[in-house]
Specification:
Blueprint lengths: L4 H11 L6 H11 L6 H8 L3 H44 L3 H23 L2 H11 L4 E2 L2 E2 H4 L1
Antiparallel strand pairs: 1-2
Helix pairs in contact: 2-4, 3-4, 4-5
Length: 147
């Protein structure tokens, strides 16, 4: 297994007796925890207990799950943009302008959420998306009705 120079330098610091910060320890664990080492071997390499390795593995799993949620949210926003655009095109072709106005509102909500993603944590954005679904109304036409 090829170990990056950054990981090697961190492991050299451990061998020199330095106690790693959590971020360094998690980075090394992420790089080395591919099935080649047991928890006991990783603990020895990092100068921590096997319990700490198990806790760090749990933190890494949480980090991965959070990243997947964030990617799913971005994908959902993109999907909503595409769906709304297609429905707007259809409503314009049918000259159903009340539906176009409702879809334009939905488009604005999606666009606002996309902008919020730059300014807020995506977890907060996900909660907002869930609250807004089905509750936004414009010109007397609910978003759910416009779908």
């Amino acid at each position: 297994m090829q170990i990056s120079s950054e990981v090697q330098s961190i492991l050299a610091r451990v061998r020199a007796g330095e106690r790693l910060q959590e971020s360094d320890r998690l980075d090394v664990l992420e790089a080395l925890d591919n099935g080649d080492y047991s928890a006991a071997q990783l603990a020895e390499l990092l100068g921590v207990s096997t319990r700490q390795i198990h806790r760090d593995r749990a933190r890494l799993r949480e980090r991965y799950q959070r990243a997947l949620r964030d990617l799913n949210l971005v994908g959902e926003l993109y999907r909503q943009f595409e769906i709304t655009l297609a429905r707007m095109d259809q409503a314009i072709a049918q000259e159903n302008y009340q539906r176009v106005r409702a879809l334009a509102l939905r488009w604005g909500v999606c666009e606002s959420f996309a902008r919020l993603a730059y300014n807020f944590q995506l977890d907060e954005l996900a909660r907002l998306v869930e609250r807004i679904k089905g509750t936004v109304h414009g010109n007397g036409v609910g978003i759910a009705q416009a779908n």
